[in-house]
Each structure stands twice: as C-alpha cells, then as structure tokens.
Fold:
Amino acid sequence: MTRKDEFLDRMLRHLGAAYYDSLHGRAAAGDVIRAVDKVAQHIGEQPITEGSVPSPRYADEPAEPTAPGGHARTLHSRVRDVMTTEVVTVDRITPFKDIASLMVERRISGVPVLTLGRHVAGVVTETDLLSAKDKHAGQRKLWTGMLRYATDHGRYSRLTAEQLMTSPAITIHPDASVAAAASAMNAHHVKRLPVVDKDGVLLGLVSRRDLLTAFLVPDEVIASRVSEVLAELMPGTGAEVTVRVRGGIVTLTGCLASELLHGPAASAIALTWDIDGVVDVIDHLATPQPA
Structure:
C-alpha cells in the first residue's frame, strides 16, 4: 500500500467514525458533510459544499519579536517550522490490536485520537497500551477455566482508543515558540505534542527530536544573523564589535561608548538569545578605558 493509499484509508476511517457518531447523536449532519468533503478533495472529486473546510485564521496569533524602531524580526523557529504534517492517527473506535499493529508497523510510540477526523480527543501511547495489558493481566489471575478463556478472548477486541487514550491531550499552537513546546513537554512529561489550531483541529505533530532541529544551525549562519542584529541596532559600529560563534556559543568582544553599551547593545544581546541555534551568549563588550 502506497503512502497516498494509506492516507486515503485513514480518511475513509475518519468518515466512518463521523457517520458512527451521527447515528449516536454525537455529530451533526454538517460534521459528516465536512468529513465527506475532505475525502472528496483528496480523491479529486467535487466537494458537497464549497468552502466546507476553511483555512484557519488565528485571532490570538503571537507577535514576532520587535527590535527598537519597530523592526519585526523572525529570529527563532515556531512549532509550525519543525512539526511533522503527515501524522498517523486513529479514531475513537479503533481497536487495541489495530493501534498496536499501527505503532509497530510505522515505528512510532504514540498516535493522536481524532473526533470526526479533525479534532484531537486524546492521545494513545505505548504506555497506555502496556498499562491496559498489565491491568487486565492482573484481573485474569482471578478467573479460571472456560470463564477465564471466554473473557480473555474478547477483551482486547473490546478495548478501543476511546478507552485507552489519555484525555484531554496536551496540545500546542503552531505559532508557539520551540522553547514553549519544549517547556510543555517537560512540564507534562510527554514526548510529543499534537499541533492544533484555535478550534482544536489537528495540523501536525511535534516531537522532542523535531525540537532539536532548531539547534542544528551552522555557526557561520548564527554569526551572520548576530551581525545583522548588531548592524540594525547599532549602525556604523560593525568594526568595533567582533562576533565569534563556536558550537552555538556566541562571544561578543569589543569596546563601545557607554550609551551604546547600556542601550542598543543590551537590546542586541537580548535578541541574540532568540536566534535559532544559539546555546549561550558570552558578553565581553566594554567601554574604553581612560588613558
């Protein structure tokens, strides 16, 4: 099965889940139509309704860092810059064994659980699967004979993603900073975060490994960006400041007038910390010593 076929297969599963939800009063007709439209778009058919899957617009989009003078700068990566957009997902009705097989086949350790093929309801991880297995293994020790066999035989086929998942899921906005994503992962002890828009619709997935890519900027690129910041905030002082970068550690040396050292230079150092790849900033800037 090709990647495109796998994606279409997942989309059709989402459509089935939407229809299932509509039968049980958990989804409106519009939700089912949107699910149909999304499948139609990916197989080249005409959607039922025009504009049924609108592009997200963010009312709370974070502002970029702004240097003195009103110059907006994109100095560090956002989650949208490092996230994975091809996400393996499951529906709430996906059985235990299907989830386990999917994780093994795709070599992943967790999957978002979607409602109506769009909204993140929770996340199922390897830990969730193993915890469920351990829990039921303990209960099986209390049973013997045919009763035990009959109960055990159908147990895992009855467990679904909705029962296994950790909910609510810890999510992140695509315009959040890489640092904010790392902080959320550390605070909640998770290895990955579903990336969602303001309506909770899944846009991608960001992992710890993805976050590390923000630090893989070559030293010469970092040095060039630091020099650009210095030139913008302190025009004409390029010859007075030396920028050296080694292993992501920025070292600034030179002599500046007191009004520059405690004004624009301080702002430039603060912005340098926001440049992708910067691990540390060593400030050796000083004022000229009297003769």
User: Anything to note?
Assistant: The beta strands are 66-67, 71-72, 90-91, 110-115, 119-125, 192-196, 202-207, 241-246, 249-255, 280-286. The longest helix spans residues 3-23.
